[in-house]
Amino acid sequence: MRKWYLRCSKASKLGCKARGNFTLNERPRKVVLTHPHNHPQDYNDEVALRFMKRLKMVCTSGVNLPLKTIYQDIAKTYPEGANLKPYCSVRSSMARWKMAEA
Ligand SMILES: [Zn+2]
Known about the structure:
three-stranded antiparallel beta sheet, binds zinc ion, 3 strands, single chain
């Protein structure tokens, strides 16, 4: 059984040493934590991440719309994400994703 090893996404930012692993092909997937987090799990992080993923998906899909229009469109579906990630904070990432696509 192959295992997949994970590291906390805040490892560098917060110095968190949390590690975990899960077994590929195991359903339902269960992550075993081998070292605990040094901070509470952050719900906002999840929301922001999902919002960013959605933005990236649309930016790289080849749509021919201004970045701001794409942003506002997705913000309607993910208002919580938009609250956490204002346009000015994601504009340069969006521009990069769009360029990579072209
Ligand atoms: Zn952590």
